[in-house]
Amino acid sequence: MKRLIGAASVALMAFAAMPAQAADKVVLMLNWYVYGEHAPFYYGKAKGIYAAEGIELEIQEGRGSAATTQAVAAKTADFGYVDVPTMMRAAIKGAPVVATGVLLQTSPMSAMGFADKNIRKPEDIKGKTVAITPADSMTQIWPLFLKKTGLKESDFKTVAGDGQTKLNAVINGQADLLLGYVMDQSMKIKDATGKEVYPIKFADYGINMVSSGVIANTDYVKGNADLVRRFMSATTKAVEAAEKEPKAAAQSILDANPKGGKIDTLTQGFELTIPLYRTAETKGKRPFQVTDQNMTETVNLLVEYGGLDAKAKENPKAFYTSDYLPKSGS
To answer: Cβ distance 180 to 174 under 8 Å?
Structure first.
């Protein structure tokens, strides 16, 4: 008996000395420099949600959705967080990428300016100056907004420049409005000036489009199905946790990147993002559960107004999959 106990003790000590199974290293590349919208990824990492799924997550800032999509297509990043319509334009041209979850199911696109200018509705844009960035996603959808609201190009002036020039134009008074995302450019302007910004949201005028989501290389998905499933499970849980604690989620950005912004505007930016997670059809569902109708409407709008190849309408489901999302309630 003593021998048996001694042998069991040795076996237990040997087992305890064995290294734990190594976590899978995963690189997530964001669509841009960090801002409030990205809080769930940092919060999920800080709270151990990814680690609990056996994932060692590295978050990298991006330089635009197109560049991040290219990185995922080339397998230099495992996952990307990008503007899904931008990914569609790459995919239809042959890039091996697919959305494994669509988080922003309502468009954040808007025309925004200082609240004290009292520009609250499309009619108020008449006679004003609008700053745009030629060929970006918002400028491509802008003609549809004008059509939906009865505005004409001749009703206002435009000034053009890159992203920073556009911001400066509004900050310095050279433009009354700019085309931007409600939770991004508005917060940058507030950080720079301390003044409130008011957005006229495209979505409020019948423009039903998805926006940001998680993408992966199609070959990577096929070869790493279990890892993709664990990553989407962790990311779903991270979003749900962040929704409940917006300020703590925003703080996790600064804990990881002290130069990532200011806590107040990071929090406000994230709080402006949360309502974009669901539509009337997905209300009450877990994050990422986009509907086929929403995706089809997005494809149709992009073909008509956004320069997407018409063949995209033949199979909208080719751009996304729900196969790797956690089941409701799990």
So the answer is: no
Find the DSSP H helices in the chain.
2-17, 39-46, 49-52, 65-73, 84-92, 137-149, 163-171, 185-193, 218-223, 225-244, 246-256, 263-273, 292-305
Which residues fall within 8 angstroms of residue 54, CB to CB, at 6 or more apart? 21, 23, 24, 230
Written in H, E and C, the secondary structure of 158-218 is: EEECCHHHHHHHHHCCCCCEEEEECCCHHHHHHHHHCCCEEEEEHHHHCCCCCCEEEEEEH
Question: What would the pLDDT profile of 91-149 be if each residue is shown by its tens digit?
Answer: 999 999 999 999 999 999 999 999 999 999 999 999 999 999 987 878 888 999 999 99
CA pair distance 112, 198, nearest whole angstrom: 6
Alpha carbons 88 and 223: distance in angstroms, whole number: 22
What gap in Å lies between CA 27 and CA 57, rounded to an integer?
6
Going by DSSP bridges, is the β-strand pair 24-29/55-60 parallel, antiparallel, or unpaired?
parallel
Distance between CA atoms of residues 174 and 252, nearest Å = 36
Nearest 5°: CA angle at 38, between 162 and 297?
75
Q: Do residues 282 and 105 lie in contact, with contact meaning Cβ atoms separated by under 8 Å? A: yes
82 and 69 Cβ atoms separated by less than 8 Å: yes
Rounded to two decimals, what is the model's pTM?
A: 0.87
